[in-house]
Design a protein that fits this description.
By secondary structure, the protein is mostly beta strands. It contains no helices and eleven strands. Strands 2, 4, 5, 6, 9, 10 and 11 form a seven-stranded mixed β-sheet that branches. It is globular, with a radius of gyration of 14 Å.
């Protein structure tokens, strides 16, 4: 199976920045559309950002637009989420996910689209 490992979470103050990383095993990373999801206590899991397999197309939840940037380095089998101007409402466990995308270079917004998931990394933003 494909394994995804997230890192980069932590405790920060409002207004600070974090960069999350997700490294994926295997040699087929370039065929995966990737996404970052988050789940806060008592809340439903939501898409934060998604990126197509080529990296040419991205999508963000409205609350992240202008603050977060998703990117990928296919040579390193890694997808990143740069989070700037963090707010307390960004506090959540962040999950990396991969979807096999053999035919279309697009992003995917629903969790059920994704085939593989990481273990999650905690992001806590204090005010």
């Amino acid at each position: 199976q494909v394994h995804l490992v997230e890192s980069g979470g932590g405790l920060v103050q409002a207004g600070d920045s974090l960069r999350l990383s997700c490294t994926t095993s295997g040699r087929t990373f370039s065929s995966y559309a990737m996404g970052w999801f988050r789940q806060a206590p008592g809340k439903e899991r939501e898409l934060v950002a998604a990126i197509s397999k080529s990296g040419s197309i991205t999508n963000y939840v409205d609350s992240a637009k202008g603050r977060f940037t998703i990117s990928r380095d296919n040579a390193e089998n890694t997808v990143y989420l740069q989070m700037n101007s963090l707010k307390p409402e960004d506090t959540a466990v962040y999950y990396c996910a991969a979807k096999i995308a053999s035919y279309s270079d697009t992003y995917y917004t629903y969790s059920l689209h994704y085939h593989y998931w990481g273990q999650g990394t905690q992001v806590t933003v204090s005010s």
